[in-house]
Specification:
Elements (H helix, E strand, L loop, with lengths): L10 H4 L4 H6 L11 H7 L10 E4 L11 H9 L2 E4 L2 H10 L6 E3 L6 H12 L4 E4 L12 H9 L4 E4 L4 H8 L7 E6 L4 H10 L6 E6 L4 H12 L3 E6 L7 E6 H10 L8 E5 L11 H13 L2 H12 L3 H14 L1
Parallel strand pairs: 1-4, 1-5, 2-3, 2-4, 6-7
Antiparallel strand pairs: 7-10, 8-9, 8-10
Helix pairs in contact: 9-10, 10-11, 12-13, 13-14
């Protein structure tokens, strides 16, 4: 029987207690399910890591989601490049990881990148971590990874938590195709234009959003994309986790009616464009219907497609369906 998991609530009690110590305390037969190589790894007995850049995923909330391989790599590298050293220092203390930290983020100077590359060229091992989740997914690191590939420095991913995939797995929306957009522009006009460019994408759309812009973004999505099915995933794996599935108009009202929903980390997932079910926004429907009064249906559909980004073929089918229903 394995020992009780280290939970977020037990941070003060368990801080500084290494994973190796946790396993040392368990002398039951079930602990022998781990291979000798794995048991040796968690005790820190493996040989030094080969010189590489390690992309290490860290928990998005619940500390028990930290993998043994990630802990081992972070203990054994020469240096950890972190998006926010203060935030990462708390995580490292919890797992008794004493590797030196340096700051590396989107606003880092070129000299910071050059310094990391210099150490990699000299044969050192460096891990890249973000504040939470898998690095480079709406997080810094792209320039560093590209530079390593150009210089033939090995890049080794150590997979783990990702808010994107975690939300998708629980959203109740199609998972066979999906499109990760990340953060929308902050300005209303730019946000609407970006959403228009996404209207014809058939895969599930995945967005990150800040709490203070959540309501405005949901309203814009409803106006541009129509009243599609969507899921709000907030504070995933944390104490106040929320997963709420509805249509966009209902999600907007849900967020407005509960101030708590406008706090924490947010992922929004929206059903992609369905060619079999053309759902037009009220504004688009009125525009298309009015143009169809003056132009042939195909021409009206082509004009609206040019404006909205929706497929002309589907707009034409909508007009035919409207005519047949009269």
């Amino acid at each position: 029987m394995l020992p009780a998991p280290i939970t977020n609530a037990g941070y003060e009690r368990e801080a500084g207690r290494s994973v190796a110590a946790v396993f040392e305390s368990d002398q039951s037969a079930s602990s022998r399910q781990y291979s000798p190589k794995f048991y040796k790894m968690i005790r820190g007995g493996e040989s030094p890591l080969p010189a590489s850049l390690y992309i290490v995923a860290t928990p998005i909330g619940h500390l028990d989601d930290m993998s043994m391989r990630a802990i081992d790599a972070l203990r054994r590298v020469d240096l950890i490049a972190a998006e926010d050293t203060r935030n990462s220092a708390r995580l490292l203390r919890h797992f008794d990881i004493r590797t030196p930290l340096v700051s590396y983020h989107d606003h880092s100077k070129t000299s910071d990148l050059d310094g990391i590359l210099k150490r990699l060229r000299a044969g050192e091992t460096i891990a890249l971590i973000s504040d939470a989740g898998t690095p480079l997914i709406s997080d810094p690191g792209y320039k560093l990874v590209v530079a390593c590939h150009r210089e033939r420095i090995p890049v080794v991913p150590i997979p783990g938590p990702s808010a994107t995939i975690t939300a998708l797995s629980a959203a109740g929306l199609p998972t066979d195709h999906f499109y990760f957009e990340g953060f929308l522009p902050t300005k209303p006009g730019q946000r609407a234009n970006r959403l228009k460019a996404l209207t014809a994408i058939e895969g599930t759309l995945i967005f990150f959003e800040s709490p203070r812009r959540l309501a405005a973004s949901l309203e814009a999505m409803h106006q541009v994309l129509g009243d599609r099915e969507a899921t709000l995933c907030r504070e995933l794996t944390k104490a106040h986790e929320t997963i709420y599935r509805a249509v966009l108009s209902e999600l907007y009202e849900f967020v407005l009616s509960d101030a708590n929903q406008q706090r924490g980390e947010v992922v929004i997932l929206v059903r992609g464009f369905d060619p079999a079910m053309v759902t037009l926004t009220p504004v688009t429907a009125r525009l298309l219907a009015r143009l169809a009064d003056e132009l042939p249906p195909r021409r009206a559909a082509a004009v609206v497609a040019d404006i909205t980004g929706l497929p002309a073929r589907q707009l034409y089918q909508w007009l035919l369906g409207r005519r047949n229903n009269k």
